[in-house]
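Example record used in the benchmark description.
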Amino acid sequence: MLKKRPILKWTLISSVSLIVVLISVGTWFGSLLPIDEMKERFKTIETSSIDNIPYLHKNVIPKRGKILAVVTSSNAMGNSGKSTGYELTELSRAYYVFKANGFDVDIASPLGGKPQVVIDDDDMGEFDFAFLNDSVAQYKTSYTIAMIDVIEEDYQAVFFVGGKGAMFDFPDNKAIQSIVRNYYQTGKVIGAVCHGPAALVNVILDNGRPLIENKKVSGFTNKEELLLIPDAKSIFPFLLQDKLTAQGAQFNEGAMYLENMSHDKNLLTGQNPWSTWIIAESMIKQLGYTPKDRQITAEENAVKVLQLYESQGSEKAKALIETMASQENQPLAREFIASHGIIAVMQGDIGRFIGLVGLVSYAKSKSKN
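Model output (structure tokens):
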């Protein structure tokens, strides 16, 4: 039959060949990842507690005041049927940076009570599991303060946690607008990360001008939003980058899903979840203190490698990997680099995918050595 239908024959051969190639590439790609290490590390960090993280219980810094962290109360993305909430990693990491640097942390939300949390298993680290195992932190997230009940004078800074729900209940909340306006005008520190800058978009200063007008600001970008949610324009009331730009902000867009922050006077904003560490520690600096030394995570090191790859190319990125491999206590999450390879495929950028797979392969060879 196939002799009589050559087109069908070659179609079948091509399809089978493609499947074989894809399976082979997938198997090879998976072999580059530290699967066993990842499973073992996950088992270990699942039981993390503040007692076994030296950063949190050694060289304790005396109390310096209080910082307010604000999370969304929204548990759904409008009428889309998709659930949402605040991002655990954006709260937990900032929470412990603030605590380690001498600040008590209260947690508030537009409605108060227990908001919904979003937990991404792929991004969970030691601090994040410690937060889930911390009875005090869990009490604070179960009984958040309603924004209308917040006493602004009690805090030295405010930090707006991301999570897609923030797009729905941060922009028009009068209590949020009040604390942002008053803190900015009196020089108190304002931080926000990922979708957290939605808290800034409708704030009008006493001079009648938008807070973010002519301010350098970062937040979750259109490219980041639309890659994961192609119909985001119909789900959200606005795209964050568009709204910030429309109100006169000088939007600072960095590489997709990599650390990027903006610092304009007492206003500090981060592009995405991977900007949380730098935003929290920069807030400590803005408050007038040197941040306590913290061991850089494997994921943060992977971000550094990717940033160098984006700005200076493969050879410079490989040189950094080699430097990290030759130094003690320099872990590297090559699975994070691999995830950016998958993002490249989603974007149809096969050349970048090949380059990133090369980095993962190089990192694996150095880890063996």
